[in-house]
Specification:
Layout lengths: L11 H10 L19 E2 L6 E4 L3 E7 L14 E9 L3 E8 L32 E9 L5 E11 L2 E6 L4 E6 L16 E5 L19 E6 L6 E5 L7 E5 L9 E8 L20 E8 L10 H7 L8 E6 L4 E5 L9 E6 L15 E7 L9 E6 L5 E5 L9 E5 L5 E7 L5 E6 L5 E6 L4 E6 L3
Antiparallel strand pairs: 1-2, 2-23, 3-26, 4-5, 5-6, 6-7, 8-9, 9-10, 11-12, 12-13, 13-14, 14-15, 15-19, 16-17, 17-18, 18-19, 20-21, 21-22, 22-23, 24-25, 25-26
Length: about 450
């Protein structure tokens, strides 16, 4: 997300049915872009989000509605994960990218809020960042419960799901204790999808203290890959001492290249990293992951780690992962990287068969693809990318990118905010999506 962002301006049963009643209606098609996967986008009579024919949306949750626990739905909804739950249910764990000074947009308003299971506070208020959890009926998408699940953090941006059923929520902030708050920030926290209330906030310090953006877990190894939202960011991996038990610690590393050349992937001084080309990866150990000076990226770069332009959304697919570099490329409009782990990933033997990084896609035209951020993989194998730019010239879209690197518009956001948190239901029939501010969480169905 942007370091400085422009910000625009239930009762359980009532909220659930009100959300289901808020569905999109569409009129005559308009052409957007060249290549089309599902056909042209149709203007939404509700003025919220244009979708192709055959697709519809409904609003599940909105900023300010009262949740099941009595708190209000917070604003600035960002990354989100979807989980299959017992009894035909779906859990959505949703981030809220709030910081000190945003109390009026948080779950407590100006009230005191709960007194336990809060990570941090200022002198006068609880920190409003954290996560909320929605429990849905998978068949009807009716919201059965909605509650606060993590509180007291700063700028919970993106994150990632784990194979063991939890959401890794990432702080995109490195505020130190004493600077208006009582604890250090810049950590990942784990929120079980099964939580029915506020979880005990435990910072996973071994996973690094930096401007965290998103995380993805390789289900084969339990290794966690992480992006960093900085202009000179690194790409990290965390090898847990005990796979599936991140609080037990592990080893933090940053990616470099075996040949030692072209360590700067940003291409902002000309295209040195060629689209489609693969490079053999090596992984560099990083000590002092708590990084009191917020210098992991500079220390890593000095050791030969590759530099990326604002690493953001990341998603693990079929034995490979993709991540966005929001402002990368010769046009500065964004890149998508693809990483294929070694069959010996995280082991000594990976030196003989290293992982591979590819510049999968680089935008040359802001009208086709601009500032890709959160991303996920659709049932048909295409990438679904959320754009994150604030401009009066170009609207934010959901962009599809097929395996050939062809880009198409999947949705156009009709209000001045970004789409975020794209994730599919466990059966692939529904795309869940956040509109950042004011918070609206949508369920989009169609011929995926």
């Amino acid at each position: 997300m942007h370091i400085s962002r422009r910000h625009f301006t239930r009762g359980l049963t009532a909220t659930a049915f009100a959300g289901l009643a808020s569905c999109g209606s569409f009129t005559r098609a308009t052409q957007v872009g060249g290549y089309e996967r599902y056909g042209a986008l149709l203007p939404d009579l509700g003025g919220l989000i244009d979708l192709p024919g055959g697709f519809t949306y409904r609003i599940l949750s909105q900023f300010g509605q009262i949740m099941s626990d009595g708190f209000a739905v917070p604003d600035r909804a960002d990354g989100m994960g979807s989980f299959a739950m017992p009894g035909g249910k779906i859990a959505l764990v949703r981030n809220h990218e709030l910081k000190p000074g945003n109390s009026d947009e948080g779950p407590f308003g100006n009230a005191a809020g709960p007194v336990s299971n809060i990570y941090d506070r200022t002198k006068s208020t609880l920190l409003p960042g954290g996560t909320t959890t929605l429990l849905l009926d998978a068949a009807t998408l009716r919201v059965e419960r909605e509650h606060l699940s993590l509180a007291g953090t700063i700028r919970n941006c993106a994150g990632g799901t784990t194979p063991w059923g939890s959401w890794l929520t990432c702080e995109e902030d490195t505020t130190r204790a004493g600077n208006g708050v009582t604890k250090d920030h810049g950590y990942i926290f784990e929120v079980p999808a099964t939580a029915t209330g506020l979880v005990k906030p435990v910072p996973l310090t071994s996973m690094g203290r930096f401007n965290h953006e998103a995380a993805a877990v390789d289900p084969r190894t339990g290794i966690v890959y992480m992006t960093e939202d900085r202009d000179d960011s690194l790409f990290y991996r965390f090898i847990p001492a005990v796979p599936g038990n991140l609080v037990r610690g592990g080893k933090l590393q940053a990616m470099g290249f075996i040949d030692g050349t072209d360590a700067d992937t940003r291409n902002n001084g000309g295209q040195h990293f060629v689209t489609g080309a693969w490079k053999f990866a090596r992984w560099i150990d990083l000590d002092t992951p708590e990084s009191p000076q917020d210098d992991l990226r500079t220390r890593g770069a000095a050791l030969g780690a590759a530099i990326f332009a604002r690493g953001e959304g990341i998603h693990f697919g079929d034995n490979e992962l993709y991540f966005c570099c929001t402002s990368g490329g010769t046009a500065g409009q964004g890149q998508i990287m693809r990483y294929r782990p070694s069959r010996y990933e995280g082991q000594t033997a990976e030196r003989s068969a290293p992982g591979l990084l590819q510049l999968f896609f680089e935008s040359t035209d802001k009208n086709d693809f601009s500032y890709g951020d959160n991303l996920t993989i659709a049932p048909n194998g295409d990438l679904i990318v959320c754009e994150d730019q604030y401009s009066a010239i170009v609207d934010n879209h959901l962009r599809g990118v097929n395996r050939h690197g062809e880009v198409y518009p999947l949705a156009r956001i009709r209000v001045q905010t970004e789409p975020a948190g794209a994730c599919f239901s466990p059966d692939g029939s529904t795309l869940f999506l956040n509109l950042y501010s004011p918070t609206r969480t949508l369920a989009i169905t169609g011929p995926w």
